[in-house]
Amino acid sequence: MRPRPWTFYVQLAGFAGFCSFAVAVNCWFVWRAVELHRLGDAWLPALALGSLIGPIFLIFSWIISRLFFKIALRKTESGRIPVPLKISPMEEVLVAPVLDPPTGGFLATMAALACVSLWALCAWCYQLYRGLTVTGLANPVFWGFYITNFVFFIGISHAGTLISAILRIVQAEWRRSITRSAEVITVLVLVFGAGNIILDLGRPERALNVFFSGRLQSPLLWDVCSITTYLTGSTLYLYLPLIPDIALLRDRAQGWRKALYELLSLGWSGSHEEREVLEQCIAIMAILVIPIAISVHTVVSYVFSMTIQPMWHSTIFGPYFVVGAIFSGIAALIIAMAILRKGYHLENYLRPIHFENLGKLLLAMSCLWLYFTFCEYLTTWYGGEPSEMAVFFSKFSGRYASGFWLMAVTCFVIPFGVLVSPLGKTVRGTVIASATVCVGMWLERLLIVVPTLARPRLSYGTGSYAPSWVEISLFAGCISTFIMLYALFTRMFPIVSIWEVREGKEQGAQGVWERIRGCFPS
Amino acid sequence: MESLNLSRKGFLRTSVGSLAALLLAGAGKARAHASGDPGPKKRPGQHRWGMVIDLDKCTGCGACVVACSAENNQMLGSAQEAAMGRVIRWLKILPSQEGEYPEPKQRLLPMPCQHCEHPPCTKVCPVYATFKNEEGIVGQVYARCIGCRYCVQACPYTCKFFNWETPVWPEEMQGSFNPDVSIRPKGVVEKCLFCHHRLQRAKEEAAAEGRPLRDGDYQPACADVCPAKAIVFGDLNDRDGDAARLSRDSRAFHLLEELGTEPKVTYLKESA
Known about the structure:
The complex is a heterodimer.
Chain A: H1 6-38, H2 44-72, H3 92-99, H4 104-130, H5 145-156, H6 160-169, H7 179-200, H8 209-212, H9 219-239, H10 243-250, H11 255-264, H12 272-305, H13 317-343, H14 352-383, H15 386-396, H16 401-420, H17 427-454, H18 469-492, H19 498-519
Chain B: H1 2-32, E1 49-54, H2 63-71, H3 79-84, E2 92-98, E3 105-111, H4 120-124, E4 130-132, E5 138-140, H5 150-154, E6 160-162, E7 189-191, H6 196-208, H7 221-225, E8 231-235, H8 242-247, E9 252-253, E10 265-268
Parallel strand pairs in B: 1-10
Antiparallel strand pairs in B: 1-8, 2-3, 4-5, 6-7, 9-10
């Protein structure tokens, strides 16, 4: 047996590690079901969740093993080193951010963001030391900024995976240059979403109790399960289409980068068999991540709607949250694309047509959002239940009215107005609409969390809430750290999928011909 | 082929049938324990502790509030904390106003944890830190609570409290803690436990005397001190006991009865 390079052993460890993780997830569900049964508690939720999520993790590990056996372990004829992959002159602009040294402006921006993040880190340490007393929370508003940000960030995370998966499945050709930038948002922002729950805990050091003594009847455990699945799935879904591009970089980079790319490219040579395996895996993942993504925001909404609190206990919350998530996700994606286009001179790849098409999606989601909001509020108002009406009027005309109407303007009036006008076909117009949508959707989350808590059913304490400097700093810190990590990613990997764009261009004419033959009478 | 098909059909029928039976059994069990309490297997002589508060007798003096906080080592609370609404009082007096000027009527309602039969708070706890025990008391495990405050949100009575910071007491009070009650650290949720430590003591005393625990052996601090004897505490399973008898009174009502939580704290309506 010929000696293997060190990368092989790391890949082997990664493969084995992931498979044992998938097995551990399944075992955990069985353990919790047995434990719940032993405690005389309902074991069905554990079994039900386990039988949904367990197989998903097994499919993940099947995909990882396909990658390992069919790509990394593939036999090359006579151990020949494959021909280095070529980057055409037009594609140089895509690898330039990765291979060229960063510019002064980039470094200055990073330094400024790092200051904000450091400040947030200090604020967090202060909060750990003093406890949640440093927040603006009090009785009865026990949840505030952190939970709002949790819901908001998880919503933004629907930008990537869901949009990219849907566009991939319906074979929207224009998706090719935007999917990567969307998928990165998902993976990174999801970490901050889950992180905000940790920020919100009174005893963050006990967070692992949800694994050691988790009650699977609690909607919070549903969150833990589905966010873990989504994070794993979307990371895998980001990584799969990245492999051929990493291989391109591997043949160009020097030093430690070369070693890293060699490790991550799994020895990709671009052969026909490899492509077949990869495209099969991507197709499976694209289908799989859609239900996972929808489940994530549905169970996030369940945290609220499973309680019997006024204006939380609503059956519409699941789809309402999912629609809001996709809405804010598209908005975040448009903003990220506009910045990338400007910063890395990607005008040739991120064209106005991409913004226009995403703008249409944003317009559709804006209408859908209005429809859901209308349904939710009309039902509440017509029912007229006193405790619900107390919350309703605090939003409609009371203390939170300014926020509520600002939300209506930023989520519907401005984006709708901009997107139906000729401005909606331009980059600038879609970016304006997206920026207001991001603000509006954040306000929507805040207005779901706080007014209900401020108006409890019994009259003894109606509370108010204003965030403290710690909460604001941590929000700013989350955003700045997210931007830093995103920027770091663009410096490590091409943010536009090189091989997919190339493939789209090569197969475009053939695709049109096939469409003419397939869809129309001959 | 025919026989194979038949056997496959038969196999399918059997497996679907048994799966359905399993699910039904599971669902039945799930419904029985939907509230997340460890299975209340009712034994003869099982206690079910409850409280009756007679609003006709209650003068709103607040002695119960003071007794409760002293008994359970609750935080003292500064003026600033009170303004923020962060003072923890497991038993508080809920004021409500009826009617407008010139004939307003102020009502006062002493409010401990309602110790629901179907507590919305225990349902949502992610880590078994809150539970209903077999005697009906809704408890809290401070050492396991992760401080997510989900149970606090889920409680329609807002009767659970959160330790925003490590509680501090002035020097003079350091010697006057109740040694039977643990001091809660920062970042956990706490609540009224019907002075569970007194129940423990009463049980030990009864065991030492070799007799069963009787109704009246154990009183929480609030019922103990009430000068108007407005708070009656006892075993609701003891049908002839004071608490059980009063909870069947024609004046009896529960807070937010329509939510179906079945509180074990009963109020007797104020006459006129």
